[in-house]
UniProtKB/TrEMBL annotation, chain A:
Subunit structure: Heterodimer of an alpha and a beta subunit.
Domain Electron transfer flavoprotein alpha/beta-subunit N-terminal: 24-214
Role according to the record: The electron transfer flavoprotein serves as a specific electron acceptor for other dehydrogenases. It transfers the electrons to the main respiratory chain via ETF-ubiquinone oxidoreductase (ETF dehydrogenase).
InterPro entries (alphabetical): ETF_a/b_N, ETF_b, ETF_beta_N, Rossmann-like_a/b/a_fold
SUPFAM superfamilies linked to this entry: Adenine nucleotide alpha hydrolases-like (SSF52402)
Record's keyword annotation contains Glycosyltransferase: no
Pfam family of the protein (one): ETF
Cofactor: FAD
Keywords tagged on the record: Electron transport, Transport
Family: Belongs to the ETF beta-subunit/FixA family.
SMART domains: ETF
Taxonomic placement: Bacteria, Bacillati, Actinomycetota, Actinomycetes, Kitasatosporales
Protein name: Electron transfer flavoprotein subunit beta
From TrEMBL, chain B:
UniProt subunit comment: Heterodimer of an alpha and a beta subunit.
Task of the protein: The electron transfer flavoprotein serves as a specific electron acceptor for other dehydrogenases. It transfers the electrons to the main respiratory chain via ETF-ubiquinone oxidoreductase (ETF dehydrogenase).
Organism whose genome encodes this protein: Streptomyces humicola
Keywords: Electron transport, FAD, Flavoprotein, Transport
Pfam families, per the entry: ETF, ETF_alpha
Identification of the protein by name: Electron transfer flavoprotein subunit alpha/FixB family protein
Similarity annotation: Belongs to the ETF alpha-subunit/FixB family.
Cofactor: FAD
Length: 261, 320
């Protein structure tokens, strides 16, 4: 029986660009070029490795996002995923974590799955909680923040390096997994992969396809509200000295003046 | 004023500092009630009481250590049902955020993660967050349900405010999913004797410029002269020079100390995401154009192999 893997990938504004908020205090997605979140490339990579180790597997990449988010799907397909699902709906503008996870969970169920693979966090929102919420919503085990992952005989195992300890985890499929950037470098799409991706199916879904009411998502349906967003004042220019043999001592004098010594 | 649930982060009853910060913030919006899961509630209770906990709800069961996250969500959900708090505060550790997020879904509430400040507002607690690699700060509030908020370490200075801190044991009825993810082995992190990176008042970090694993002793010597924690850039971690648990940045630890010293670190956006909210920033880099210098209060353009040992020596001399 085929192992059905769904990889959740997010389309995010480039972190090296000048990211801003739009008028309505949602992330301004026009000002900066978007791309497949780098941290989700690790998820695609681990899904590919799991699929290669399995007798028979199929990888669906899933994104919830605007029209341009297709770019993220295309990149994941060119890395080697088999097909893609894009949930796109005007009513989704301004959706928060709880709304996004609701849409993702419905879409995952729509696709059908044995294993869901996520990145450790999105590079724009950075909450890192969607995978745990998906496990809650789907009522399956959460095996998250793994730096190593393996799937064998219907069991997922992995290593989670936490603050206080490193843990070896184990759960039965179906399950939701998230992987960190310690899980292994993601492959680059090959030319062949890029060409093949153009022919792979991309299914588009809207909220009604998933049986979700517009009022459950979007800015108005959000469970939290941003009241203000302020650019952090530029740091006042500091003192910069060139080391002429006394740099260490000068620095010590500064630290003493600030009472650190 | 209603009660505010504060989730206690501890190791066998030794309460970690971020929890004390949460108790301090909790008092701005209500009366703190601590929730202590696992062994050691009697050890923790006096410390929690000292910092304002009026009650300590304690539950102990082997499930908390043997299975991932869900048993703790079950316990916290039960505590919410019995207390009916005005808010739930959880430390922003990786696990803390997962617990908080699942709790929010269960109790039908909104969630805010990684707050750096908290105050009372007309529509419930107002949380300040630092976003887009600290380029912006936002203020938000929860619009549905009981606000669930996770708060980053070093967001407040713990203040003593003695309260009763009466320990009340409760028994948790675990959900079907509680035993879904088994922790089959656990290797505790070895203690270095240095302060915890996220909690430290001072952090000394090294990057690619340090050049080799053995050279990190220069960084460690400086850290030890100050009593600081040691950090590293991802380039240094990826090269295998320093453990990943010490990585500072977007995919490592986010630190907000009084003093951050970066040596041989260029200051890429992903690194800045983890240290830009530090109060005083100092850098040593041989490239005068390195972006890290845009952030500094004091910068030395020079070779770290010259500057850092001299600095360490001078600190020792000054400290006598
Ligand atoms: C999704 C993603 C997540 C990431 N997460 C993180 C993260 O969490 N943390 C992180 O740090 N990075 C992260 N990065 C990587 C980040 O983009 C940079 O590559 C990294 O921070 C560079 O580390 P560095 O400054 O040590 O190295 P470099 O950028 O190579 O800088 C080395 C600096 O050392 C200086 N130098 C060299 N020799 C000396 C000397 N003898 N004396 C003084 N100065 C010297 C050089 O002038 C240079 O400025 C992430 C990247 C991505 C894409
Ligand atoms: N809009 C989205 N579409 C698809 N996947 C997402 C989306 N948002 C979050 N995810 C997944 O959830 C992970 C954690 O995201 P977050 O909790 O937002 O930091 C990401 O790495 C993705 O795998």
């Amino acid at each position: 029986m085929s192992l059905r893997i769904v990889v959740c990938v997010k389309y995010v504004p480039d972190a090296t660009g000048d990211r801003h908020f739009a008028e309505d205090l949602t992330t301004d997605r026009d000002a900066v070029d978007g791309l497949l979140s780098e941290l989700d490339e690790y998820a695609v990579e681990q899904a590919l490795q799991i699929s290669e180790a399995a007798d028979d597997a199929e990888i669906t990449v899933l994104t919830v996002g605007p029209e341009d988010a297709k770019d993220a799907l295309r990149k994941a397909l060119s890395m080697g995923a088999d097909k893609a699902v894009h949930v796109e709906d005007d009513a989704l503008h301004g959706t928060d974590i709880l709304g996004t996870s609701l849409v993702l969970a419905k879409a995952i169920e729509h696709v059908g799955y044995d294993l869901v693979v996520c990145g450790m966090a999105s590079t724009d929102g950075t909450a890192g909680v969607v995978p745990a919420i998906l496990a809650e919503r789907l009522s399956v085990p959460q095996v998250t923040l793994l730096s190593e992952v393996k799937v064998e005989d219907g069991t997922v195992t992995g290593r989670r390096d936490g603050d206080a300890a490193s843990e070896q985890l184990q759960a039965s499929l179906p399950a939701v997994v998230s992987v960190t950037d310690q899980s292994g470098e993601a492959r680059y799409p090959s030319f062949k992969g890029i060409m093949a991706a153009k022919k792979k199916p991309v299914e588009s879904l809207d909220l009604s396809d998933l049986g979700i009411e517009a009022a459950e998502v979007g800015l108005a349906g959000a469970w939290s509200a941003v009241d203000e967003a302020n650019e952090r004042p530029a740091r006042t220019a500091g003192t910069i000295v060139k080391d002429e043999g006394e740099g260490g001592k000068q620095l010590a004098a500064f630290l003493a003046e600030r009472k650190f010594i | 004023m209603g009660e505010v649930l504060v989730y206690v982060d501890h190791v066998d009853g030794a309460v970690r500092k971020p929890t004390l910060e949460l108790l301090t913030l909790a008092r701005r919006i209500g009366e703190p009630v601590a929730v202590h899961l696992g062994a050691g509630a009697d050890t923790a209770a006096p410390v929690l009481a000292e910092h304002g906990a009026t009650r300590v709800l304690a539950a102990d069961a082997s499930e908390f250590a043997d299975y991932l996250v869900v048993p703790k969500v079950d316990a916290l959900e039960q505590a919410v049902t019995s207390v009916n708090p005005v808010a739930v505060l959880v430390p922003s550790s990786a696990e803390g955020k997962e617990i908080a997020a699942r709790l929010a879904v269960r109790i039908g509430s909104g969630i805010i993660t990684d707050a750096i400040d908290l105050e009372a507002g007309t529509e419930g607690p107002v949380a300040t967050q630092s976003v887009f690699a600290a380029a912006f700060t936002t203020k938000s509030h929860i619009t549905k349900g009981t606000p669930v908020i996770t708060v980053k370490p070093n967001s407040a200075t713990p203040e003593a405010a003695p309260a009763a801190g009466t320990v009340e044991q409760f028994a948790v009825t675990f959900s079907e999913g509680a035993t879904g993810t088994k922790v089959v082995a656990r290797t505790p992190r070895e203690s270095t004797g240095r302060p915890e990176l996220t909690e430290a008042a001072m952090v000394v970090s090294g990057g690619r410029g340090v050049g080799a694993a053995e050279n990190f002793n220069i960084i460690e010597a400086l850290a030890d002269s100050l009593g600081a924690a040691v950090g590293a850039s991802r380039a240094a971690v990826d090269a295998g020079w320093y453990p990943h648990s010490n990585q500072v940045g977007q995919t490592g630890k986010q630190v907000s100390p009084q003093l951050y010293i970066a040596s041989g670190i260029s200051g890429a956006i992903q690194h800045r995401a983890g240290m830009q909210t530090s109060k005083t920033i100092v850098a040593i880099n041989k490239d005068a154009e390195a972006p890290i210098f845009d952030l500094v209060d004091y910068g030395v353009v020079g070779d770290l192999f010259e500057v850092v040992p001299q600095l360490t020596e001078e600190i020792k001399v000054r400290k006598g």
